[in-house]
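Re: weekly structure request thread

Next one in the queue (336 aa):
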Amino acid sequence: MPDFTHLPTAAKFIALMPQWDFLNFLSTKAAAFPAFHLLMEHEVTGLIEAPPTRRGDQPRVVGVHVQTPTGPLDIHAPLTVGCDGRRATTVASAHLEVIERGVPIDVLWFRISRQPTDPENGLGYVNHGLTAVLIDRTDYYQVGFLIRKGAFAQIQANGLEAFRARLGEVVPFFAEPDASGHRRIDEITSLDQLKLLTVQINHLHRWHMPGLLCIGDAAHAMSPVGGIGINLAIQDAVATANILAGPLSLATMSRPVPVDTLALVQKRRKLATLITQWFQAQAHRVLNRTLGPDRIMHAPLIVRFVSSQPWARRFLGRVIGMGVLPEHIHSPLATP
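Done, posted below.
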């Protein structure tokens, strides 16, 4: 449905890139900076806090406890940025308040092999009270199978054959045998292959405390709808860099970045986050109506409307492709 061809960007398309490739790209670019150090296999287990200097003040985060292949280690820093996802250790350790927005669906993730004869543009399949999303990973699909919140236990109780049959209903070419009689639904040999993603939409009441700033999914868990969680996270990172580059260059352990300066990041990004989450919540209402009795279905009215209106497709393309509040890197290195 979204039309990206009118976006005021150099690349008027969406790229689906595996996360590991993107992270490798980022780390390679960042390695050009002499102050950049990437520590692999270092798992953050908690925050290091210094007691408040004045009565009534909050403790100040001065680094993190980590577990490494050679044992525990403490890493100190004038600012810790929590970008460790929706189950963020930083958020839990800091006891930051999370505001939840109810979500009616969950997603089961699994792999199915891809064949050269498969449809080129097949991304979403909706029918028979089922919805599946197929992300092309060249030689396999990453499949997202939507279920009602809390329904995974019933799927497990119904058994493997019942799940295979339902998958074959919503994506028929998965159930078609090839010349050797192989059906791709048979690649699901155990329900243990299905990884449950508990879909959340939430945000922190406050993204920061002295010495700590949370961004990305740590600050606001997004739904998979639209695949825009990564967009919001990158925009948070760009805004953080623009706002904090100067103050961080002057920060020391004894003179950290002021809390009021950290608050500017939340002030900059909060409205865009809440508007995006509102759009996702409306999409969930539509998706929830597709999950129901086994019957031949037609596209919901809102989907048919958006598909038929060029202006609506351009609007959707802008929201998905650029976001509510696009960010632009201010660093001189961003200019060719």
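The first strand starts at residue 43 and ends at 50. The chain has two domains: 19-102+199-334, 105-197.
Next request, please.
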